[in-house]
């Protein structure tokens, strides 16, 4: 092969490696571009487990006053309702656990993109985080998380508008034996906006 041929091959190889480094392969854990924060060693007494109705705003730096109740908004041209709220934030902003619990499922969804399903400590509530840029390094199914602990980063994966990155956050009440995709939707807005002061 000529010197020109080797040069072209090297450029193609470098371009391929660069492209693959930008691609997320679904459920694989990877470290997102978290802007601030680390997991806390201890929870302040006001955030101790046992108050599942008192949720933290799951996007770092977003005050409760910035939240909008778009739970009942129409989606899909009026074919369905939202059944969640969207929390707008720059891509890469930390997504943190809204309550203590356990990571139930890391899932790549067509509509939701990279998602996390987290079950509450009492196993009666599922928290759903969607359109994520990526997961925190080392996050895995079955892992316990504290309220406020960084778990991912805001993105625009799935059917989200790339020009409007946000966290799609939903809450479902579940019965014993319900799986991660089941449950009855609950409006998360009053659980977030009506509870304790955001950090």
Overall pLDDT score:
79
Strand content: 25-35%
The H/E string reads HEEEEEEEEEEEH
Assembly category: single chain
| SS class | alpha+beta
Rg for CA atoms: 19 Å
Estimated helix fraction:
10-25%
Number of strands: 11
Taking the alpha carbons of the first and last residues, their distance comes to 61 Å
Number of helical segments? Answer: 2
Uncertain regions spanning at least 5 consecutive residues: 19-52, 195-199
Major sheet, described briefly?
A: 9 strands, antiparallel
State the shape. elongated
Description:
The structure is a single chain. The protein has 199 residues and is α+β, with helices and mostly antiparallel strands. It is 13% helix and 29% strand. The chain contains 2 helices and 11 strands; from the N terminus they run H-E-E-E-E-E-E-E-E-E-E-E-H. The chain has helices at 3-22, 189-193, and strands spanning 74-75, 80-81, 85-88, 94-96, 101-109, 113-120, 125-135, 144-145, 150-154, 166-173, 184-186. Strands 3, 4, 5, 6, 7, 8, 9, 10 and 11 form a 9-stranded antiparallel β-sheet that branches. A two-stranded antiparallel sheet has the order 1-2. The radius of gyration is 19 Å and the shape is elongated. It starts with a helix and ends in a 6-residue tail after the last helix.
């Amino acid at each position: 092969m000529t010197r020109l041929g080797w040069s072209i091959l090297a450029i193609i190889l470098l371009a391929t490696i660069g492209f693959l480094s930008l691609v997320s392969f679904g459920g694989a854990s990877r470290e997102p571009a978290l802007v601030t924060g680390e997991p806390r060693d201890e929870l302040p007494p006001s955030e101790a487990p046992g108050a599942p109705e008192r949720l933290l705003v799951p996007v770092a730096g977003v005050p409760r006053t910035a939240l909008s109740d778009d739970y009942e908004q129409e989606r899909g041209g009026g074919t369905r309702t939202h059944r969640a709220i969207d929390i707008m934030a720059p891509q890469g902003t930390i997504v943190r656990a809204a309550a203590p619990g356990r990571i139930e499922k890391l899932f790549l969804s067509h509509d939701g993109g990279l998602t996390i399903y987290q079950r509450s400590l009492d196993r009666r509530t599922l928290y759903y985080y969607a359109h994520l840029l990526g997961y925190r390094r080392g996050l895995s199914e079955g892992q316990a998380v504290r309220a406020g602990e960084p778990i991912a980063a805001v993105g625009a994966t799935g059917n989200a508008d790339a020009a409007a990155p946000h966290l799609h956050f939903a809450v479902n009440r579940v019965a014993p034996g319900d799986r991660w995709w089941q449950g009855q939707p609950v409006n998360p807005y009053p659980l977030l906006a009506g509870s304790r002061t955001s950090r």
